[in-house]
Amino acid sequence: MRRKLIIGNWKMNGSPQSVTALAEDLSSGVNNLMLGSVDAVVCPPSVYTAAVVELLAGTSIQVGAQNVCAEALESGAFTGEVSAQMFAQLGCKFGLVGHSERREYYGESDAVVATKCAHLLAQNITPVLCVGESLAQRDAGDALDVVSGQVAAIIEVIGIAQFLSVVVAYEPVWAIGTGRTASPQQAQEVHAAIRQCVAGYDSVTAERMQILYGGSVKGANAAELFAMEDIDGALVGGAALDAEEFCVICKSAE
Ligand code: PEP
């Protein structure tokens, strides 16, 4: 039985005041839920990582990174970047890689995404590998091939043994921040294809790995998504900025 995992991606939002208020509200909200089979994680902007780690210390909510430097694992002359080692030293346990916004606005290729995965793994941080098709690719009937290709590209570089420690997040690009959610059946079809792709390398890894759904998940649609066999949680954007909404999503996963 796979545990459920709910990850909030705060993206580039928040001020010192609002981030503090959100972390405090989450800390009491999630605590009251007394989650048993669900893990909750938040990924603040990196400038707030240390503060959020401190604010959430002693709660069950873990902290993750939204992005990580590809060029070096520890330190070096890479202005503006934050290394996997730096996130690890702050206590981060998860790191997003390959989010569609990074692929689109920063031109991140599968090769770069694979390097970032490897850096996070080297620092004992669980990479959350985001994959997903565009609307044009879905309309062309290519969704399953595109997504399986993105997953396979990473396995080919880091190896299937390492992939056991990776979480996959299926995020159809057309459903991110649009209010348009994939139907539970559409999401399930892709999640099953991802598991089948991984099973082509190793069936035990395929069965154990967590596959999250992301794309306009909110309190109102979470339960029906989590009821699907291969959906093991959610990567939440907009709704993660509202502590109450995030708690409803976490509760729906129990
Ligand atoms: C995301 O950015 O990962 C995401 C899923 O955003 P939203 O929930 O706002 O669609």
Main attributes of the structure:
eight-stranded parallel beta barrel, single chain, alpha/beta, 254 residues, 12 helices, binds phosphoenolpyruvate, 15% strand, TIM Barrel
Task: Describe the structure in your own words.
- By secondary structure, this protein is α/β, with parallel strands linked by helices.
- The chain has one domain (4-252): Aldolase class I (TIM Barrel, Alpha-Beta Barrel).
- Helices cover 46% and strands 15% of the residues.
- It has helices at residues 16-33, 49-55, 84-90, 100-105, 110-122, 135-139, 143-158, 160-163, 184-199, 203-208, 219-226, 243-252; strands spanning 4-9, 38-43, 62-65, 94-97, 126-131, 167-170, 211-214, 233-236.
- α7 packs parallel to α9.
- The protein is globular and about 45 Å long.
State the CATH topology: TIM Barrel
> What distance separates the N and C termini?
13 Å
- Quickly count the helices: 12
Strand tally: 8
CATH class descriptor name: Alpha Beta
Which bin fits the share of residues in helices?
A: 40-55%
Strand order, biggest sheet? 1-2-3-4-5-6-7-8
C-alpha geometry? globular
Present as ligands are: phosphoenolpyruvate
Mean pLDDT, all residues: 96
Q: Uncertain spans, ≥5 residues at pLDDT below 50?
A: none
Q: Biggest sheet: strands, sense, closure?
A: 8 strands, parallel, barrel
Keywords: Cytoplasm, Gluconeogenesis, Glycolysis, Isomerase
Subunit structure: Homodimer.
Subcellular location: Cytoplasm
EC number: 5.3.1.1
